[in-house]
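Dock fe (ii) ion; give full complex structure.
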Amino acid sequence: MNRREALSAGALLIASVSMLSAYDEKLIVNTKDMELQDPKNPTDFEYKHMPQIELKGKDEKGYTLVEITVGQEGIIHPSDANHWIYAIELYADDKLVAHADLEPVISRGFLSARVKLEDVNELKSISKCNLHGNYSASIAIEKEA
Ligand SMILES: [Fe+2]
């Protein structure tokens, strides 16, 4: 490694370390996968964290608009400086097809993607709250006759 390469590698390392500490400052503390206490009767606290998956129209290329909002039953999860949904994932069967990283205060728990659903049986989403962990929800995809 020559001097120029070494300087460049050092600058990259410094950039990586400063990105890491910026992420730490956002208080991402709870990465636990949470289970509902009673899956048939979620509490308001659980609804607030559960992603709601909605299917909208299909475009001319056959991609369905999938919208995910956190949470369910009209109970919106807050987006405060110390408490917010920092990421949402969308899986088609077991394949990760969309992912959103979200900022506190300025954005809140929402993701949309266009997905080809013809060979998909289930859509699952995971919402990640920095304080309360990961909550998931899924819907079955009905096949057209
Ligand atoms: Fe939360």
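Observed: The chain has two domains: 1-29, 31-140.
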